[in-house]
Amino acid sequence: MLFTMNNSLIKxxxxxxxxxxxxxGCTKKFDKINTNQDSYTQASFDPNFMLTSAEVGYTGxxxxxxxxxxxxxxxxxxxxxxxSTVVSYWAGDKYxxxxxxxxxxxxFGADAAYPEQIKPIVDVVQSTADNPKYKNLHQxxxxxxxxxxxxITDLYGDVPYFNxxxxxxxxxxxxxxxxxxSIYTDLxxxxxxxxxxxxxxxxxxxxxxxxxxxxxxxxxFGNTLLLRMAMRLVxxxxxxxxxxxxxxxxxxxTGNDDxxxxxxDSTGGRVTQNRNSQVLLGDGGQEHYYTKWSNTFIDMLxxxxxxxxxxxAVTQLYLSDGNKNQNPAFITNPAVQKGMPNGKDLSGIxxxxxxxxxxxxxxxxxxxxxPALIKRNGLTFILTxxxxxxxxxxAAVRFGIAGDPATHYHDGVKAAITYLGQYDKSIAIDDLTAxxxxxxxxxxxxxxLEMINTQFWLHTNxxxxxxxxxxxxxxxxxPALIPVNYPGNATNATIPRRxxxxxxxxxxxxxxxxxxxxxxxxxxxxxxxxxWDK
Length: 534
Fold this sequence. Notes:
The chain is mainly α. Among the domains are: 47-252 and 490-534, Serine Threonine Protein Phosphatase 5, Tetratricopeptide repeat, CATH 1.25.40; 276-374, no CATH class. The chain contains 22 helices and six strands. The protein has helices at 2-28, 30-33, 48-58, 66-79, 99-102, 113-128, 135-156, 167-170, 180-197, 215-231, 238-248, 275-280, 287-290, 295-303, 309-312, 385-399, 405-418, 431-440, 448-463, 466-476, 505-508, 510-519; strands at 83-85, 260-263, 291-293, 313-314, 368-369, 379-383. Strands 1-3 form a two-stranded antiparallel sheet. A two-stranded antiparallel ribbon has the order 2-6. A two-stranded antiparallel sheet has the order 4-5. Helix 3 packs antiparallel against helix 6. The protein is globular and about 65 Å long.
């Protein structure tokens, strides 16, 4: 018993001594010992990872391309008569209001713009501020934040802007909706300032999927984005538009090598593959078989024997509704390309159903998108040299600045033809073919703005950037699209001008939502206009 007691006492005393020793050591090195060396903080985390996340988010939601499917394709693509479909839930070219779909770009749970784009890019901006190590990363993030928020405000009008994504930093988890005029004032200031501070001698961000951290290209991108933002204001503030256009003359993109795009990676499945491909290859429905190029788009290309027609459109791609395997013997012959009229369905009602339309023979006879445009590991284009040149042509006509509109028009159209090879070599158009086409169809001053902006529409359609097709159409009025008159439409047979605010905001941000909702001129409707679209 004595041995046992003494042995226990020795053990107990030794344990107390060890605890005392450890406690003394912990007191001296408490912070180091009690910090998880494998954890991330704002001091240790590389914000390049968040840059990558934000850039990928801009190409579309990871949840089966929810925002791309609803906003870009179902609504914008068909309203702008780039695409046409008879899939029953595609409400865009019927001018029907599906509040879930018009809300999709804003946010759906953890998906879409505010959670997947704005929050991570704000984190990059905030975590790199006043840190010389990330000088260029900080400026690039500011430019990207502006790019992302420009699209949101263009779709909805007044939106949370100044405090968007700032809840962690300033405690404002329910930001107010800022006026679009104040948003554009700040967008122009931010992009101008950030672009001017890019430094070729400083860091080259490793997380950049667009230009691989190439500062010179980001400078061209920033100035081209500034040009686009300035030209949005031609209806409401032409003086400001002109001032900013003058600022970027000679500093915008100089060729298709400057085109901004992100290459998808199909090995990651639905998380990393091209968003447009997910939808148009029928991952979630019948889009592969029933979604076609609009006859407005195809007829315009056919009317002038545009060389793009044989590259972007094919017939006989899918031979039956239930088979998603592509026919390798699809037809590219421009003579047989045929667009589908907008505003049709499968209802069986005469005048409404596609089967009673004079153009109908069979669905494989209508023109599908060339598979090269929608590869799962393909490109998503963000901003291009062709857009830049066509915007400069528009500015030259309106303001008498930026040089010769005919030269910019020539260069813009030629670039919009030759850039297709960046999608895939199989649809490349050589320089001589493009030059011959532009020479045969020269700029005509008497119809300058119509020609410029119709070409802009054709180009953004081939980019599959129907968001931009819609914005530039609202800004310029061209091309002169003929609206459809689908029974029960929500717009009195007029093409929609904006998306209503998400109804979910009434529950999550009720005070600010109500104030913005009530303040929309003409009501919070598809037919009301955003500030710059007067």
